[in-house]
Write the structure tokens for this entry.
Amino acid sequence: MSKKPYNPEDPKDIADAEKKLEDTARDLEIVMRSPEGRRLVYRIIYEMCHATQTSHVPGCSDSTAFNEGSRAVGLALLSEAIVEPNYLLMLKENLPND
């Protein structure tokens, strides 16, 4: 069964999209309340997806494209996490203490 395309003029589609955004924000807020959740979000954004690093691999467009896809996931999560009240606490807890 295929999903019907989003219609920005349909009040039901608009309400469904708004609910989905609210649910996602609430879910992330719950995850960011615990040290374990903050550690996981940090690992996904900065260690697994390398969201703040370059994705270019000289001479290898396939690897660059793969890295850029991973980075896009990390940036999407970062854009949600950065507005959370516990975002700075997450950084403080997980950044190296050099």
In short: Residues 15-94 form one domain. Residues 7 and 13 are 6 Å apart (CA to CA). The chain has a mean pLDDT of 94. The chain has one domain: 15-94.
